[in-house]
Amino acid sequence: MHPAAYSGGFLGLVVFILDLIAVFEVINSSRSVSSKLLWSLLIFLFPIFGLIIYFLFGGREEYNGGYETIA
Question: Where is the protein found, in the record's own terms (predicted)?
């Protein structure tokens, strides 16, 4: 088999993992329930484009509490 035949599976796995991270971030945000549902549906129904739209226009800084340093 040609090595490029395996690239679709690997890229699909990467997109799936990024989608799960984005949905986890949406669910843990301070958005309303309807907003969480709509963003999650957008990301799952359109995995690549939904992910791009979320990271560009999702207002992640506004709705997420931010990260705290451990040390």
Answer: Cell membrane
